[in-house]
TrEMBL record:
GO terms for cellular component: cytoplasm. GO terms for molecular function: heme binding; iron ion binding; oxidoreductase activity, acting on paired donors, with incorporation or reduction of molecular oxygen, reduced flavin or flavoprotein as one donor, and incorporation of one atom of oxygen. Keywords: Endoplasmic reticulum, Heme, Iron, Membrane, Metal-binding, Microsome, Monooxygenase, Oxidoreductase. It comes from Lamprotornis superbus. InterPro entries: Cyt_P450, Cyt_P450_CS, Cyt_P450_E_grp-I, Cyt_P450_sf, Cytochrome_P450_fam2. Coiled coil: none annotated. The lineage of its organism: Eukaryota, Metazoa, Chordata, Craniata, Vertebrata. This is Cytochrome P450 2W1. Heme binds at residue 842. Belongs to the cytochrome P450 family. Pfam families: p450. It comes from the Eukaryota. One of its GO terms (biological process) is xenobiotic metabolic process. Its main location: membrane. Its cofactor is heme.
Length: 900
């Protein structure tokens, strides 16, 4: 329609504003008669040859000033950055974003979003080695996909798009997607379609004449796609909101949600839902399209010029040792590769017209006056093809970036791009195969036993820390025939569980748990079943009041019963496990809908069974069964254990039956009710994960994980108060100052009780209750220079974090100052990870913290705890007698003396 023309110069009259010259505009269409909307950058380049490097063009009624040539663009965007610093108002983007996001927002909002985005992206690894490794892993998945074609032809478009956007996904959402994930494919398809449409002549026409918008089907499709993207992202945001843990942010979205919460009371915050949506989308679209298009150009050019490809491969073989992973800094030793990558970007020229700017005020530039609000197009293509700067601008010629000796030279007229492209292109050229896959180092395994002779099975945590001193923070151990990678120390464990949360998200198959749960439930399940069950459980627990005042009321109620029970001892000694009843009962309230009387036979049976199962779980015999399951016939422990679990199941079955008999929407009072209700809701759904076996397994997991843990922590906290009476006294003094006589401290009160809060944190740090819970890799993973194949068992040692001497002043001493500053204020510590961290962390954290605080403060408010007569504080034993699933204190007694 509007084809390329040969241009006749028309000397434009100087306007009052002294605008740059340009072709004379026709009524209504302006200069659209001389602009090919399919390749507008070419038409503008032609015009620059006639009107010079700064000229005016009228796109319909819109007046635009075009900047051409490297010198001009640099002068405007660097030396006059402020004057050209506004983003132009483009109708379709305005309609799409309503002024939200980063790419097309303005003024203060843009500044705030840009500042926040840059610092958040940096926090999540941009420009750092962690991100580099993340990219390499993605490349690894990509290579596998390429290999699956066995040299046969295939289209690279979608798959490269997937891989590249996965890198940005891991920064945004803290997770990558499988290449065949239908939701991911839809997301990419919508973005792809919009990118195409946004550059189409029809949408450009809409931008020139927005008032005719109703005519353009393309613009409508763009907006429709945006609303689909909106729906998709809202769902993701919702999931992130539900699982948000301020101490453990998975990516940009989480950081935004936290900021949004912090600013929720501000009347004009930039952290609105609209901004979340469009900032995410801007980053996603910008990070995907640009990079993947460049990578595809890279592939095409390497096919076209095989001799160049070969030269790159030779250079890489020289520089990168077999078995080593390449680092970005290797570029310095690879001038030829570096030159090729730069030339690919110059030649590909993927954003030929830059992104339009506008002038925030009248601007004097090169003798012209450009009025406020004029749209500015920096014609990047003209810099990348500037004849003054490139020897052969129209040819693919890596020597543009090489000197006579083959050294890489930086060229000013090159406008650089992103790290992702550099690495990815480099990798495609090497074929990646050169790097051997190596596991972390470790002791040599002996036949049959592997390294079991180096591990004390009763104190695995201590043995692992000792081995770390010799083999470094990441090492490989052989438990019998089983290979295990051990991660130790705060830095490494946090990096694995947070930055690589999706990679380390799975649990391994452990024979005893396989036999008990058969892959069902929460604790030892994986994949979609785990995800759905976990999401459902977290939201049900929240609906049942977890972490809220609702459950706090039940905790106070339980506190009364506990205090009454302790009073009944009348200051005489009683055993520490007597405290267990109360925290266990709170978990039972959530599971069963009501508390038990402490003498109820079912309650007592459950307590006994949980206790016995926990002891068996820690026994060396059970470990042996897990290492050598085929020798099961030799060991009895696992059979005894299975029998006990059956007994627990029999009790749970009764509760499930009762729930099933009168379930309806208005009677969801417990986790069991919630599960049964969900099961009925999904009864006609094929493949629903809410089948009987999974229901039972999920309840069983909460019975086991949600009782022993809190109960044992409470026991420890009382034991430590007996051991350190001066600390107990200081806690009581703080309680006296802050809690009104006759009332209980609420969880909220912890903010005014820094000392007590510090003591409770220190209890959890010091006791290292759960030394580790095994994970395994969900995908092939490159981590800190090692290759961990999919499915390998990984032990992130929480003990080594809680006792990390780089993080704690006196790791082996009970010292509440670890959580206090010089003024006595409470300070949060990153290395406080008793609940673990990342996507697979403990789901009971907020319930446990609330309970521990309310019980602990209530108890110390009412009683002073002392050793029994004849036992001194020094006699109290802080060692652990046996490893149960958790580290319990030695059986000891306490006397509770009623306070005035
Ligand atoms: C002081 C109390 C507690 C501590 C120290 C604790 C600690 C932990 C740890 C370290 C994990 C392993 C996470 C990982 O693999 O990264 C875990 C998992 C888990 N915890 Fe807790 N926990 C406590 C209380 C609770 C409570 C009260 C509940 C439930 C009401 C609970 C339910 C769970 C569940 C279901 C998992 C498995 C999560 C999954 O695999 O997705 N925990 N806990």
């Amino acid at each position: 329609m509007l084809g390329n023309r040969s241009f006749v110069p028309i000397s434009s009259k100087k306007s009052v504003c002294n605008l740059p010259p340009g072709p004379r505009p026709l009524p209504l269409i302006g200069n659209l008669n001389v602009v090919d909307l399919k390749k507008p950058f070419q038409s503008l380049t032609e015009l620059s040859k006639i009107y010079g490097n700064v000229f005016t063009v009228h796109l319909g009624p819109r007046k635009v000033v075009v900047l051409a040539g490297y010198e001009t663009i640099k002068d405007a965007l660097s030396n006059h950055a402020e004057e050209f610093g506004e983003r132009a108002e483009i109708p379709i983007f305005r309609k799409m974003t309503q002024g939200n996001g980063i790419a097309f927002s303005h003024g203060e909002l843009w500044k705030t979003m840009r500042r926040f985005t840059l610092s958040t992206l940096r926090d999540f690894g941009m420009g750092k080695r962690t991100l580099e490794i993340r990219i390499l892993e993605e490349v690894n998945s990509l290579i596998k996909y390429f290999e699956s074609y066995h040299g046969k032809p295939f289209d690279t478009k979608m798959i490269i798009n997937n891989a590249v956007s996965n890198v940005i996904c891991s920064i945004l959402f803290g997770e990558r997607f499988e290449y065949d994930d239908p939701a991911f494919l839809t997301l990419l398809k919508l973005i792809n379609q919009n990118t195409k449409l946004l550059g189409s002549p029809m949408v450009q026409l809409y931008n020139f004449y927005p008032s005719l918008g109703f005519l353009s089907g393309a613009s409508k499709t763009v907006l429709q796609n945006i609303s689909e993207l909106n729906a998709f992202l809202q769902k993701l945001f919702q999931e992130h909101q539900e699982e948000l843990n301020e101490n453990d942010l998975t990516g940009f979205v989480d950081a935004f949600l936290v900021k949004q919460k912090q600013e929720s009371k501000k009347p004009h915050t930039a952290f609105s839902n609209g901004n979340l949506m469009f900032s995410t989308l801007d980053l996603f679209a910008a990070g995907t399209e640009t990079t993947s298009t460049t990578v595809r150009w890279g592939l095409l050019l390497m096919m076209k010029y095989p001799e160049i490809q070969r030269k790159i491969q030779e250079e890489m073989n020289h520089v990168i040792e077999p078995g080593e992973l390449p680092r970005l800094e290797d570029r310095k030793k690879m001038p030829y590769t570096e030159a090729v990558i730069h030339e690919i970007q110059r030649f590909a020229n993927i954003v030929p017209m830059g992104v339009s700017r506008s002038t925030p005020s009248d601007v004097n530039f090169r003798g012209y006056v450009i009025p406020k609000g004029t749209e500015i197009i920096p014609l990047l293509t003209s810099a990348l093809n500037d004849e003054l700067h490139w020897k052969t601008p129209d040819q693919f010629n890596p020597s543009h970036f090489l000197d006579a000796n083959g050294n890489f030279i930086r060229r000013e007229a090159f406008i650089p791009f992103s790290i992702a492209v550099l690495l990815a292109v480099a990798y495609f050229s090497t074929g990646y195969k050169n790097s051997a896959f190596k596991l972390p180092p470790g002791p040599t395994p002996l036949p049959i036993i592997g390294n079991l002779h180096l591990v004390d099975l009763r104190r695995q945590d201590k043995s692992l820390m000792k081995l770390a001193e010799k083999y470094g923070p990441i090492f490989t151990l052989h438990f019998g025939f089983q290979k295990v990678v051990v991660l130790t120390g705060y830095e490494v464990v946090r990096e694995a569980l947070v930055n690589y949360t999706e990679e380390f998200v799975d649990r391994p198959s452990i024979p005893i748990f396989d036999q008990i749960q058969n892959g069902n439930g929460l604790f030892f399940s994986i994949g979609e079943l785990w995800r759905t069950t976990r999401r459902f459980t977290v939201s049900s627990m929240r609906n049942l009041g977890m972490g809220k005042q609702m459950i706090e009321g039940r905790i106070f109620e339980e506190l009364h019963f506990l205090i009454d029970m302790i009073k009944s001892f009348k200051g005489e000694p009683f055993s520490l496990p007597s405290f267990n009843c109360a925290p266990i009962n709170v978990t039972f309230v959530m599971l069963f809908g009501d508390r038990f009387d402490y003498k109820d036979p079912t309650f007592l049976t459950l307590l006994r069974l949980i206790d016995e199962v926990m002891i068996l779980l820690g026994s060396p015999n059970l470990n042996y069964f897990n290492f050598y399951p085929f020798l099961g016939f030799l060991f009895k422990t696992h059979k005894i254990m299975l029998k006990k679990i059956d007994d627990v199941r029999a009790i749970l079955r009764q509760y499930m039956k009762a729930s099933r008999e009168d379930i309806n929407e208005n009677s969801v009072r417990s986790y069991i009710d919630a599960l049964i209700f969900k099961q009925q809701e999904e009864k006609n759904k094929k493949d629903s994960p809410f089948h009987d076996e999974n229901l039972m397994a999920s309840i069983l997991d909460l019975v086991m994980a949600g009782t022993e843990t809190i109960a044992t922590t409470l026991q420890w906290s009382i034991l430590l108060m007996m051991k350190y009476p001066e600390i107990q006294k200081k806690v009581q003094e703080e309680i006296g100052r802050t809690v009104k006589a006759g009332s209980w401290a609420t969880y909220e009160d912890r903010k005014n009780m820094p000392y007590t809060n510090a003591v409770l944190h220190e209890v959890q740090r010091f006791i290292t209750l759960l030394p580790h819970v095994p994970r395994c890799t969900a995908v092939d993973t490159h981590f800190r220079g090692y290759f961990l194949p999919k499915g390998i068992i990984v032990i992130p040692s929480l003990t080594s974090v809680l006792l990390d001497k780089t993080q704690w002043e006196t790791p082996h001493q009970f010292n509440p100052n670890h959580f206090l500053d010089a003024e006595g204020n409470f300070v949060k510590k990153g290395a406080f990870l008793p609940f673990s961290t990342g996507r697979r962390n403990c789901i009971g954290e907020s319930l446990a913290k609330m309970e521990l605080f309310v019980f602990f403060v209530g108890l110390l408010q009412t009683f002073t705890f002392r050793p029994q007569p004849g036992v001194s504080e020094a006699d109290l034993d802080l060692t652990v007698p046996q490893t149960t699933f958790t580290l319990r204190p030695q059986p000891q007694a306490t006397c509770a003396v009623l306070r005035e």
